[in-house]
Amino acid sequence: MKKAIVFDRSEEDEDDMDDLRMECDNCYNHIVYNCDICRKEFEDGEPIFCSGNEHEEGKHYCLDCVKKKSKKVVAKPINKGAENPYNEFYLIANERFKEICDRDDFRLMNVEKELFPILESTDNEDTTTYRHMPFNAFFINQIINFDDFLIYGIMLEDNPKFEDAQITFLRRKNTEKEWNLTSYNLNSVNDDEKFVVLDTALKRVVINFLDFLLQEKEYKMTEQLKDNKQNEKREKRGKAPMPKTITIKLSEKLRAYAQAFAEGKNKYANKFLIRGHIRHFRSTRYTKAKDKQKWIYPYWKGEGIIRKKDYLVKT
Asked: Is 161 found in the same domain as 45?
């Protein structure tokens, strides 16, 4: 596993830190403290402007600096009301799951949303092999849509003794308001027939994600340490304490591919999906590639009306 780059504040920064810490939703998981021009500390309710986007961390400015430097500063107001699946999960979860989230070996994992349509559209013939996880427990902090269902983040807890993992997530139908906390082993499927298709698709995404983490050239991983002082303030405001956080940024090549895949760019008469798969090099004829994997991306052919095809997916 690739070594993470750790971002930590110095003791001097800690002394100057204001009671308020805001998380910018415009740039990629950036923590906002003060204006990057005048160094003024932001106050609660003050408009803040960001020069970044969802893939890159940006600079943050107060309104006065945006007005004064309007020709030099390219920024937009940050969205402070962004949805946070982990916060919702933590507040709904029972004490057992909260204890897991509070452990030092737990990680909150922020992943770019463009990755998940590719994961869902990739077949994987190896669904039973035990996969070692990068952390004993972690939470994939992403909202995923599966037809009529909304998945609000996924927690994975490794169980190497039984060569399995427990998967826990919040789900609800798009037409419902109540969340259901669901948990089962990764190598099993929910007995309720109503959820077999959903659980099979979710299992496929999780397995493909674990295999994706082995493709180290496809992403960059950074880690931010948790802040106990700020977590006390978050809990007073009714929010979940933030654990150590992993941020996964896709490579430029993979991100460009993911965006093109989402847009369905192609040159054929009708549009249909060619599913991806994980190629496993097991044969003895492979020397350098023996026992390695290669991700063959899914892609769209055609344009215009989408032709749907039913697939038989092994579980």
From this structure: no
pLDDT in tens, 174-198: 888 888 888 888 877 555 666 777 7
pLDDT in tens, 81-119: 456 889 889 988 889 999 999 999 999 999 988 899 888
Classify residue 313: in a domain, yes or no: no
Residues 152, 173: one domain?
Answer: yes
The DSSP call for residue 306 is B
User: Residue 101, CB half-sphere, CA atoms under 13 Å: how many?
Assistant: 26
Residue-number span of the structural domain to which 35 is assigned: 5-77
Q: Is residue 223 within 8 Å of residue 249, measured between CB atoms?
A: no
227 contact partners, CB below 8 Å, separation of at least 6: 9, 21, 242
What is the C-alpha separation between 27 and 48, in angstroms, rounded? 12
pTM: 0.65
Q: What tokens does 30 get? A: 């950036």
Buried b / exposed e along 151-174 (16+ C-beta atoms within 10 A): bbbbbbbbeeeeebbbbbbbbeee
Q: In one letter, which amino acid is 260?
A: A
Q: Are strands 272-274 and 299-301 parallel, antiparallel or unpaired?
A: antiparallel
Q: Are residues 95 and 44 in the same domain?
A: no
